[in-house]
Amino acid sequence: MSAPIFDFSHLTPEERIELAEQLWDSLDVRAVGLTAEEATELRRRRAALAGGETLGEPWRQALDELERGGA
User: Fold this and answer.
1) Looking at residue 68, what DSSP letter applies?
2) pLDDT one-digit tens code per residue, 28-68
3) DSSP annotation of 11
4) What is the pTM of this model?
5) Burial 14-32 (b: 16+ CB within 10 A, else e)
6) What distance in Å separates the CA atoms of residue 64 and residue 16, rounded to the nearest whole number?
7) What are the distances in angstroms from CA 37 to CA 9, 29, 62?
8) Contact at 8 Å (CB) between 35 and 41?
């Protein structure tokens, strides 16, 4: 692995996550293969998480649903 372009070792984990989110948001959705709808859904989910909404469902419940053919 090569040396990072920027030294971000002084950043807290929260600041690193924020940096990653800002980098992601700076990309054109077409450059990463997302549809506009997928990008909108990712933004909605991140806003829900930041707003303290539920984080989802237990992994076992999600896996059971997938195995039953749902999604």
Assistant:
1) T
2) 877 888 888 988 898 888 888 888 877 778 889 888 988 99
3) S
4) 0.48
5) eeeeeeeeeeeeeeeeeee
6) 33
7) 34, 10, 22
8) no
